[in-house]
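Record passed on underneath.
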Amino acid sequence: MSTIRFQGYLTDALWDTGSMISVISLSIASKLGLDIADTIQIASINGESTAEVTIVSIRFPNGAIIEDARVVICDISPGNEIVIGKDVMTLIEITVTNNGQVYFQGNFFVFGEAGTV
């Protein structure tokens, strides 16, 4: 887990190397009033379903920003509002130490148009 700023909302995010997509909970999507950009078919341990997709900005602790990230809105396990999947992880350089610290390395990354986060 690490703390990120997500559409101006500060929250903990779970890093899931087994997830190909990044996900936000229905409750946070509702709280932030996010617009639906698309739908996709997803497969999970609960089977296949159609999920809504929204476009967001994510700011990481080193100041790196990912603009226009596509994230799926769906029910996720309680206590997890955001799951960062491989789709986002491949865009930044991350080091996780054996004592649980997470370091975001490299340059200041900005993807897409500059905007307010």
Observations:
- The first helix runs from residue 26 to 32.
